[in-house]
């Protein structure tokens, strides 16, 4: 075909630190801020595509840090992309994969920015490039993780009253099983039938603890247990899934389509938390959903607690999924004290509305971005 004249001209990568509205306590770390790498791909036709690379608690969740993502993109990915035609994301990402092993979060951020640019150029929402929307809004749960039972119940009541969320995920695994179960049971008792309650153990249990935990949590009225065992313990996940009276979800164990295929073949989980950064990109995330559907495994739209750019990119993908049995947890922007978009995302009525504009359909407030940039003008000591 005739070659397109538009080239990738420049790639910005900015580390942006935003405080959280309260401490967010997970089994491995408590966070007080979120750190995003905002990626902007400038093309020679004037189009700028955006992506985001965000993880949780530096290197305590996964093996990529924000600082490492920035370095990987600046030193290894940008030189491969600059000067190339900007209009074929699949071929650009194939080139990146040829020279960069792993680094899924960084790849996802770059792929998102390239796809955003392509969708803007085509004048269609990103979801169209990803296969087309099957829904215009997504259900969104909220994670109660203040570390305090009373405060979590108050927070849940507020969310219900505002009609913002009616599904809650609780982070457990840090304390003794009996203490964790008492915490979860108190919250479920306070909620009654008004809300669904699930837990995320973030790999903290061993198999005997998980077996006991599954029964105790089922008795407490919990619907689902996310990643109870270490990500490498696939046999344990398979046995637990067969044994547990309530659904078991895989999260950290799913680092791409081949993990998903293995889990589907062996029924290593009842549900997948699909996270494009963990899977290696939006296309890879879509492949996980296809494998889940083919394997009769439930689908859940996960989050890395991204800000608005990463969140809306995931939303465009999740809107294309045939099934979304467990809803989504795309609440990341609501955990941050500052919004870096000109118009915040539309969270209402227990869900999130998809934007209708081209590409991601959102715009950065550049003053805010520059203010919160780690190396931004306001932070530079002359
Ligand atoms: C995780 O492990 O699922 C998603 C929601 C939340 O509170 O933490 C994240 C990470
Ligand atoms: Mg999880």
TrEMBL record:
InterPro entries: Chloromuconate_cycloisomerase, Enolase-like_C_sf, Enolase-like_N, Enolase_C-like, Mandel_Rmase/mucon_lact_enz_CS, Mandelate_racemase_C, Mandelate_racemase_N_dom. GO terms for biological process: amino acid catabolic process; peptide metabolic process. Its EC number is 5.5.1.1. Signal peptide: none annotated. CDD domains: MLE. Residues 149-247 form the Mandelate racemase/muconate lactonizing enzyme C-terminal domain. The active site is at residues 171, 329. Keywords: Aromatic hydrocarbons catabolism, Isomerase, Manganese, Metal-binding. Pathway: Aromatic compound metabolism. PROSITE patterns: MR_MLE_1 (PS00908), MR_MLE_2 (PS00909). GO terms for molecular function: chloromuconate cycloisomerase activity; magnesium ion binding; manganese ion binding; muconate cycloisomerase activity; racemase and epimerase activity. SMART domains: MR_MLE. Its cofactor is Mn(2+). Belongs to the mandelate racemase/muconate lactonizing enzyme family. This is Muconate cycloisomerase. It comes from Rhizorhabdus wittichii (strain DSM 6014 / CCUG 31198 / JCM 15750 / NBRC 105917 / EY 4224 / RW1).
């Amino acid at each position: 075909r005739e070659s397109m004249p538009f080239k990738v001209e420049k790639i910005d990568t900015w580390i942006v630190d935003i405080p959280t509205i309260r401490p967010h306590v997970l089994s491995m770390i408590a966070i007080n801020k979120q750190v995003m790498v905002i990626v902007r791909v400038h093309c020679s036709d004037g189009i700028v595509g955006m992506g985001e690379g965000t993880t949780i608690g530096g290197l305590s969740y996964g093996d990529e840090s924000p600082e490492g993502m920035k370095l990987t993109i600046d030193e290894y990915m940008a030189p491969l992309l600059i000067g190339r035609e900007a209009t074929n994301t699949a071929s650009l990402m194939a080139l990146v994969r040829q020279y960069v092993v792993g680094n899924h979060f960084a790849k996802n951020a770059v792929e998102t920015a390239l796809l955003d640019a392509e969708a803007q150029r085509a004048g269609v929402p990103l979801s169209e490039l990803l296969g087309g929307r099957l829904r215009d809004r997504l259900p969104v749960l909220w994670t109660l993780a203040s570390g305090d039972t009373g405060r979590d119940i108050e927070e849940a009541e507020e969310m219900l009253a505002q009609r913002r969320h009616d599904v809650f995920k609780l982070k457990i695994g840090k304390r003794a099983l009996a203490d964790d179960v008492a915490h979860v049971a108190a919250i479920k008792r306070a909620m009654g039938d008004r809300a669904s309650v699930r837990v995320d153990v973030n790999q903290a249990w061993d198999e005997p603890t998980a077996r006991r935990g599954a029964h105790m949590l089922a008795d407490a009225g919990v619907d689902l247990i996310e990643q109870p065992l270490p990500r490498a313990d696939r046999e344990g996940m398979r046995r637990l899934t067969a044994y547990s009276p309530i659904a078991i979800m895989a999260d950290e164990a799913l680092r791409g389509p081949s993990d998903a295929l293995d889990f589907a073949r062996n029924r290593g989980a009842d549900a997948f938390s699909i996270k494009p950064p963990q899977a290696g990109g939006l296309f890879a995330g879509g492949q996980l959903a296809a494998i889940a559907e083919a394997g009769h495994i439930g689908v859940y739209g996960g989050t890395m607690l991204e800000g608005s750019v990463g969140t809306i990119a995931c939303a465009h993908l999740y809107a294309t999924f045939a099934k979304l049995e467990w809803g989504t947890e795309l609440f990341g922007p609501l955990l941050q004290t500052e919004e870096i978009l000109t118009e915040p995302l539309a969270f209402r009525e227990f869900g999130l509305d998809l934007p209708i504009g081209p590409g991601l359909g959102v715009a950065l407030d550049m003053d805010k971005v520059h203010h919160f940039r780690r190396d931004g003008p306001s932070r530079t000591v002359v």
